[in-house]
Amino acid sequence: MATAPRPRTTTRDPEELAHRLTAWLDTRLPGAKAVDVRVPSSNGMSSETLLFDIDHPEPPLHACALRLAADPAAYTVFPVYDLPRQFRTMRMVADRTDLPVPAVRWLEEDPGPLGAPFFVMERAEGRVPPDVMPYTYEGNWLHAATDAEREHLEAASVGIVARLHDQVPLREAEFLTLPGDGDALHRHVASQRAYYAWVVDGLARSPLIESAFDRLTELWPADPGEPVLNWGDARIGNVVYDGFDPVAVLDWEMAAPAPREVDLGWTVYLHRFFQDLTVAFGQSGLPEFFRRDRVEERYAELTGHTPRDMDFYTLYAALRHAIVMLRIAYRQVHFGEVAVPADPDTLILHHGSLRAMVQGSYWG
Asked: pLDDT tens-digit profile of 330-354?
């Protein structure tokens, strides 16, 4: 990760997008122009983000961000990009919670203007913990912070997850229910099995991922509890911070009803993913940051719900992330950036930690 080139995330031309965005904006706000249109360096590996400002005497938004469905020509990470679903989710969470979710302004379902559906939202000013190079590496603002500052950020970030789970009435999130049979956890895992099948269709399968699914069955919780609305991508890389306080909670494309621990497992493991990589490259990282025991204790204090079966849920998080990593690796193969190795499991950056979780040795 320290030397590999960043995988290609788009095949779109930013200048052409800026021209087409200005033409579309004039239909929503006559006379308005999109200026300073740019693609952030932190653009994700899934839906794309454009940042721009509105040049107009009385704009409803001065600073904007545009969320654009992934370019099909870029070998997409996910099979479906439901922008109306994300738009509706963000509006619901903004209306029903005190989370700092950016206000969404416009939804465009017609792919004509920009080549794919998109929506426009307010842009929060602040800073985001970097993924490349990860915030666990030296040389970024979060790594350089004091222990007290990082603890403040951690507490505030766990608070986001806790308040989301407690504040959104599940009946209002029924439109996010995943297809299939059984309870919310069975549907969630079934959706990941379907996603994995899509990723490996016509390609080498992953014995490690399949063994992780088998291990999930063995560890299945006796009582998953009542589902709540899960953020889905609950990690600090999807939060904008002013200082060390959250000012915008982003990336709602994986939101769905699920047990509380699905989000918590993702929060804990996604930090461990970066921490493990950092240690593997010879740095100490941030070993006291987002420790599993502290996240669980903090969440219990905030909600009254003591997390349970977390070996299952952290394994599930590592498994879900492995499927995404395998898809990204196969996209690099598609663009000629890497070759398929003899062992396809090695395409998964965290194959060692996932294997340790399957074997039950990861957490010591």
From this structure: 999 999 999 999 999 999 999 999 9
